Amino acid sequence: MKFFKYQGTGNDFIMIDQRETQFITRDDKDLIERLCNRRFGIGADGLILLQYKEGYDFEMIYFNSDGRESSMCGNGGRCIVAFAKQLGIIKDKTHFLAIDGEHDAIVRPDGWIELKMSDVKNIENGSDFYYLNTGSPHYVTFVNKVKEVNVFEQGRAIRYNDRFKAEGTNVNFVEANNDGISVATYERGVEDETLSCGTGVTAAAIAYYIKSGNNNITKIPIQVKGGNLEVRFEPNGQGFTNIWLCGPAELVFEGEVEI
């Protein structure tokens, strides 16, 4: 099986072109988990299938590194757009289908990928957190020094608490700074900190907008441990719409693997 390895701000994915040949199905949990293993496989935070879908440029099917099909992955969405361009499926614009619905994306000349996310509403504002779904569920809490947070331990404690342990949630620690926000994320399914999480920074940007009370902030620069991203959106009274997750997506290497 031929594969391609992509990364978006350090969030890395195995890409498989399944338009003509079906190498992997949803039942192949153990195989997907092994391919994502960093010691016994290719190594990745997740695996993504690009498949033919009538009425769309392609369909995106995303699996976490535990082998289970998961909810929307923003960085994975940006990476599959770059992959589709490499395959010659698209040029500079695309319309594709993912588990949370339809998505549009734009490929800029410098390789910057802008991905339109699903609208967001029903945001829970807790005593010291925000909880919202940006294609995946996210718990967002603000901290003074994000670099000093033990993301694995504190994120895992929230992800497996009484409220979230059954379905799981992603957990984001956010620090406001002069240039926007810095974000660190514990991802369910990976069950560890990742260098970046696209739906996570989207959730963090919206939470920051609500917390700041500044209605003029609708384009937010974001620093993650894997690089820099940007989120822009429009509040509409009912929630948020016209949400775009923007950042780099790059081919790391390609190869073949026995399955």
Describe this structure in words.
The protein folds into 2 domains: 2-116 and 249-256, Diaminopimelate Epimerase, Chain A, domain 1 (Roll); 120-239, Diaminopimelate Epimerase, Chain A, domain 1 (Roll), CATH 3.10.310.10. It has helices at 29-36, 74-87, 151-159, 198-212; strands at residues 2-8, 11-17, 46-51, 59-64, 93-98, 101-107, 112-116, 120-121, 124-125, 130-133, 137-142, 170-177, 180-187, 192-194, 219-224, 227-235, 239-248, 250-256. The protein is globular. With 259 residues, the chain is an alpha+beta fold. The longest helix has 15 residues, at 198-212. The protein starts with a strand and ends with a strand. It has 4 helices and 18 strands. The strands form 2 sheets. Strands 5, 6, 7, 8, 9, 10, 11, 12, 13, 14, 15, 16 and 17 form a 13-stranded mixed beta sheet that branches. A 5-stranded mixed beta sheet has the order 4-3-2-1-18, with helices on both faces.
The backbone outline, from C-alpha atoms, is: globular
- Overall residue-averaged pLDDT value: 97
User: Beta fraction of the residues?
Assistant: 35-45%
**Strand runs, count:** 18
Helix/strand/pairing class, anyone?
alpha+beta
